[in-house]
């Protein structure tokens, strides 16, 4: 409603109340006017309608920032919008929130519609509060040029960092002990809780004795419930999907070289969603708080720059 008509109606209602002595509630009911709307009009009496005007906000992006987001997406088309956001933030391409990145890409027609996937995983073990409290160990098969090999890796539950891994032609309890010992050599002060499934290598008497002598403890997941070791299961799934299958190594030595490069990138470059989109190496080294603080500072500075630019354009 136009301001003059709105104010006239407010005056009319007040006049009727004063003239008849009937309550506002009764008159508004007879006029079929909702009380909330009337009192909102009364509060804005004499003011121009501005409540529906698009008022620029500090989080609104500049056109060049929108172009930067879209260009960065085209450079990394296989990366999800959340990881993309923090990659842009850490490299200072543009400082935005994940929801802003999503909206920009959606308006540009770059966000495909995905059906939500319901997880069958439970909570598993409580998340550790420091590095080297939980080490997840697991064995998986790798199909390399038609031959199956065993890969065993040790993952730190706090940081998701891969402490040690090996690919072998066989994987008995003694092999697992060697791999675990080499992981301990990479972190000599660690006395972790070893979390594994119920594979024959992990229930062997010699393995139990090795864990005890090494000053560690061991717990096995519930039978037929691999989700309890989900952190390690997820890493092996990612390894196969993003490394082994696309690169198709043709020999054991080539597979070891390929996996070594992938693990290096996984630990030091790939932003992990479960730890706040930082790298496992940064989490392991205790740099998480500093990275989060820097991101928050960059976002605050970006909002301030947009506010100043908008104010300058309005003043010109």
UniProtKB/TrEMBL annotation:
One of its GO terms (biological process) is DNA integration. Residues 127-288 form the Integrase catalytic domain. InterPro entries: Homeodomain-like_sf, Integrase_cat-core, RNaseH-like_sf, RNaseH_sf, Transpos_IS3, Transposase_IS3/IS150/IS904. NCBIfam families: transpos_IS3. The lineage of its organism: Bacteria, Pseudomonadati, Acidobacteriota, Holophagae, Acanthopleuribacterales. This is IS3 family transposase. It comes from the Bacteria. Pfam families: rve, rve_2. GO terms for molecular function: nucleic acid binding.
